[in-house]
Structures are given as C-alpha cells and as structure tokens.
Amino acid sequence: CGRAKAGGDAGTMSASALGERVHIALAAAKKIVILSVVVGVLMLVLVDWPVVGSHSEHTVSAHPRSLESFSASPMQHTADSGAESESTRMQRGRLAETLEMDVKKATKGDRESYHTQVGNGGRRLESETMSKEGALKWLAEVKSSIKSTQQGLIDAYKLPMEKISEVSFFDKEQGNDAIVKRLLRAMVLNDSFVYVVGGMSDTAGHGNMFADSYPQVMADIMAPAMAKAKIKFEVRNLAMGGVPSYPGSMCMKDAFGPDADVVMWDFRMVEHASLNGEIYIRQALMHPRRPFVAFKRPNGYLNSMKNYFTPASLHVVDERDLAKLASSNSNTTARDLVENDNFCGFSDPVRKKDGTWQECECPGQVRWHAGYKLQRLRGVQMALVYLNMLDLAVDKYVEMINGPGDEPGESPSDIMQRRWEIGHNKQIDLAEHAPYSKDCRGIFCSRAYSCAMSWEPRMGPGLTDIFDSETKWKLDYPVS
Predict the structure, then answer these.
(1) How far apart are CA 387 and CA 167, in angstroms?
(2) Which helix (H) or strand (E) is 192 found in, with range?
(3) How many Cα atoms sit within 13 Å of 265 on the Cβ side?
(4) Which of 116, 382, 389, 415 lies 20 to 30 angstroms, CA to CA, from 191?
C-alpha cells in the first residue's frame, strides 16, 4: 500500500514498525559508538565534486533495462522483497489493464511491447546500418504510438489537449527545447530517460496501492511510446511520508540515482522554505547527469531565481486548474473519472457485484491524501506533458534525416556520430552566481556529495553498507 515494497517501504511505515526500527537502531548505537555518530551526521562526505562538472558524455552502464529489473536494482529491499516484487508486478499489470478500460484503451500497445522491445533485451536500433527509409518508417511508428495514446486520453476526459497537458516553463524563450533535445539524444543513442519524483506521503500514494500513485500512472501511460522509441524509460517514485526535500537533496546522486534526467519536486504539503527549494535546484545542477527540474507547484520564490530558469529548464506541472475543469465537465462519463473519488481504485482485479472496486485497508486514508481518481488525473497530465515533448523530438529527428528545406539530410549513422553531450549548452558556473537565499551557504549550495543514508527508498548505499562486517568499527568507504 502507498509504496511498492520492492521499492522501499519507509513512505508507508506504520508507527509500530517505525518504533521497532528506531529501537533496533538505538540498541546498535549502544554497542557501536561510531554508528550513532554516522546516523547523527546522516551524510558522509566521500567525494567532493567540482562545482561544475565537465561537459563530457556520461554513460550509465548499470541502468536497469525494465521496470521489473528496476524493482531488483540497487534500491534497498526488505528481506522478503522477492515476493513483494512479484506483488508489485501484478499490481502494475492490473494498472495497465484498468487504465485501458477506464480511459478507452488510451494505452494501446500495452506493456507487453515494452517488455519485448526494451525489458527483455529485444531488438535495438542499429543506427550505423539503418537506412533512411527504415529510420523514417520507425519514427512514423513512434509518432503513431504517441498520437494513439494522446487521443485515447483526450477522448476519455473530453478536454482539449492544451488543458490536459498544461505545463509552464520559466524561460519562455527556451521552453521545452532542452528536454526535447535530451529525449532526441535518448532515441538516437538508445539511451535511458529517467524521471525521478521526490515528494511526501501524497506523492507516494498513501491511502492507495502504490500502482495508484501518479508517478506509476505516468509510467504506464508513457511506456508503450517510449518502448517504440527504443528509450530505456523509468519513472522512479522515491517519495516518503512527512519528509521535506532537505537533507535528502544534498545526496541527490545516491538518493535519486546517477542517471536522472528530470527530477520532480513535490513536497507541497511539508516544505515551503525558499532555501530548501534552492538547494534542490542547485544540487540538480551539480548532479552528474544534470537533470532538469520540475516543480508540482509554482512556489512564489521561484520567480526570482532567474539564473536557474534556463540551465535547469525549470518548469511547473500543476494539476489544480485541470482538476477544476474536469470536475465541471458537461460530459457525465468524463466527469465520473474525477468525481466521487475514493482510495484504492486499482487494488484488486476482481470487482464487486455492483461494479465498484473492492476497498483496501491501506494506511493513510485521510482527507489530505488524494484518492485514485485524482492520482490518475495527475498521472495523465504528467504523461501527456512529456509525450508532447517526445513527439517534438520525433519531429526533430525526421527533420535531421530529411534536411531542413532544400538542404540535404543526414543518414542515421551520421546523426549517431554527432557529439551528443549530456551537458546543457547554457550551463552556469554556480561559483559565479551567488544563491538567492541568504542562508544558502557554500557547504549546502556549491558542493555535491556522495552519501550513505538510513532513509528509504534510495538508490545508493545505506549505513550498513559502509561498515566493516567483521569488527563493526572500521568504516569501509565505498569507491566513488
């Protein structure tokens, strides 16, 4: 409930379970003095990265190749994670089926093609040998998959595309160009595109099954088109209940993974300080892969942080206006997709006799947590926002092959040989740009860290991973 256990369970830990964990930690601290020191500090400064890294290529060699393999990736698991991973896979499969039913088969292409083409080591684009005709045919198939998904969701919600896929960029001139280029790069090189969502309990989906949470809805809707584009695609929901972005943001590489392409800030209920928001952005700009930064709310302080607008491709995906519009829809079938919301929409594949979904007993069913309908609406909006960008990336790829105007185009092989740097063309030197928040000192805002953490979920090492297994005293620093 609320968090797939294979992905870490800190976000939905009960009070008794939390108390037991604290008791165990305290008992260990009495025996090992240094452990209490490490826990108190939380972060271990293992490697200081330069303020602005080089613009060289960053290759992610250990990137999980499917959502199933991601559930068994370096993220920390519980002892019975094998069984829980199977449960998670079942939930995600049911989610795809339910979305297909509820939004009139908007996810046509289903997850089977995703696992066949990407997850199971299937065919890969051979850019060196692909003909121009073959590349154009493939890109037409990608575009068709995108359009099919878009149209299905528009038909279901009876809302115009510009409303259901609304996104606001702070740099109006650049807009989504930088993210489109990152997606284009992923298509050309068959690389990964990883979307990481950091947030609080509502983001984790508390009160619902983990498959109900909007990041997972987004993942399932986008999967067929991303698979067709041969992009190794992931959405990581790394939210946990009641925790702000800081201090986890100081450990962004190890908390979110070194391969993040976009990081979402969704701490809207638990964090309002501009300092924390600025740390989140600056740490993203120092991350090895320089992910772009999305916010779930247009926090007022963001308007003044102009130095970050362009390099972070800073943007907001806020569902509140969309939810109001959907609730006032004149079409009763479409309005039912958001009205009379409740928890656990995808909790069980077997329906009751009256046609409603069976209720679940997931903790966190409180008024400030969204039910499955609002979670789904958020996921639909998020998916359409980034599918629109993938669509533009396809257009750019086609233009490169055909050539602009009367100019000759390039072969797929020539396109692949271009210099596809991961760095932003307008990357800024943070050392030359003082933080906007007066308390954003260099140790927080101009240095990046490698960390071992006790919190879950996470992608990097935990505290127990850095202790000598024999003496329990000597720190065994991982090689970074």
Answers:
(1) 12
(2) strand 192-199
(3) 34
(4) 382
Q: Are 169 and 175 a contacting pair, CB within 8 Å?
A: yes
How many residues does this entry show for the chain? 480
Which two three-digit tokens encode residue 472?
A: 């329990």
Q: Yes or no: say if 32 and 463 are a contact pair by the CB < 8 Å rule.
A: no
Q: Residue 154 — φ and ψ, nearest 5°?
A: -65, -45
Q: Of 358, 321, 80, nearest to 208 (Cα)? A: 358
- Spatial separation of the C-alpha atoms in residues 338 and 408, rounded to whole Å: 49
- Tally Cβ neighbours within 10 Å of residue 469: 9
| Backbone region of residue 456 per phi and psi (left: phi > 0; alpha: psi in -120 to 50; beta: other values) | beta
Interatomic CA distance for residues 316 and 170, integer angstroms: 8
Contact 182, 342 (CB under 8 A): no
Structure-token pair, residue 361:
């007993």
**What distance in Å separates the CA atoms of residue 54 and residue 66, rounded to the nearest whole number?**
29
- Based on DSSP, count helices (H) and strands (E) in the chain, helices before strands: 17, 6
| Residues 287/82, Cβ–Cβ less than 8 Å | no
Spatial strand order of the sheet with 192-199 comes to 168-169, 315-316, 292-295, 262-266, 192-199, 232-237
Tokens (6 digits) for 374: 């609002």
Question: pLDDT, tens digit, for every residue of 392-419?
Answer: 999 999 999 998 877 888 988 889 888 8
Cα R_g (the chain), whole angstroms? 22
When pLDDT is cut at 50, 70 and 90, the band that residue 427 belongs to is low
DSSP 419-464: ---SS-TT---GGGS--SSTT--HHHHS------BS-SS-SS-BGG
Q: Using an 8 Å Cβ cutoff, are 376 and 214 in contact?
A: yes
Reported as a pLDDT band with limits 50, 70 and 90, residue 342 is confident
Residue with structure tokens 């045919």? 137
Beta partners for residue 357, in sequence order:
351
Phi and psi, residue 199, nearest 5° = -175, -165
Strands (E), 213-365: 232-237, 262-266, 292-295, 315-316
Question: How far is Cα 78 from Cα 201, in angstroms, rounded to an integer?
Answer: 20
pLDDT in tens, 48-88: 332 322 322 222 222 232 333 222 333 332 223 333 344 44
pTM of the model: 0.74
